[in-house]
Amino acid sequence: MLMRTDPFREFDRLTQHVFNNAAGTWSRPTAMPLDAYRAGDEFVVAFDLPGVDPDAIELNIERNVLTVKAERRPTVTDESVEMQVSERPLGVFSRQLFLGDTLDTSQIKAAYEAGVLTLRIPIAEQAKPRKIEISGGQAARKEINA
């Protein structure tokens, strides 16, 4: 159901992580890790966003391109507090997914809990397998024999 992600984005993420570990900006965001799978009649995507305020998450879809942007801001803003350890990267994170036509993008549900943004995208009705009734049978044979 998921058509593809941008493979070069992963190279950018890896390079940024290894060489400069710089925070992402709105013009050059850092990629966020995700898991994607099909569960029954829906497609589920889970993005890792620990420490991100839900108000700092943007979710948009346009022409079957799903874009998630989030910003992790410093949690301590009081000048009297001295930070001892700060290992979680700050800045802007973004990810784009190209969704297939078999997903019903008008019915996406999003939930943010325990640092994970979970999207549930139902499979479109026209993409679900269905049985097709075959007309004819005994009645058609009688007409032919007559």
Descriptive terms for the model:
alpha+beta; Immunoglobulin-like; 146 residues; 2 helices; 5-stranded mixed sheet; 15% helix
Radius of gyration: 23 Å
Order of helices and strands: EHEEEEEEEEH
User: What is the mean predicted local confidence, pLDDT?
Assistant: 79
Strand content: 35-45%
Describe this structure in words.
The chain has 146 residues and is α+β, with helices and mostly antiparallel strands. It is built from two helices and nine strands. The protein has a domain at 41-75 and 89-126: Immunoglobulin-like, CATH 2.60.40.790. The chain has helices at 7-20, 138-145, and strands at residues 2-5, 30-31, 34-39, 42-48, 57-62, 65-72, 91-99, 109-113, 116-122. Strands 1, 2, 5, 6 and 7 form a five-stranded mixed β-sheet that branches. A four-stranded antiparallel β-sheet has the order 3-4-9-8, with no helix packed on it. A hairpin with a 2-residue loop joins strand 8 and strand 9. The protein is elongated and about 95 Å long. This is Hsp20/alpha crystallin family protein. Residues 25-137 form the SHSP domain. Belongs to the small heat shock protein (HSP20) family.
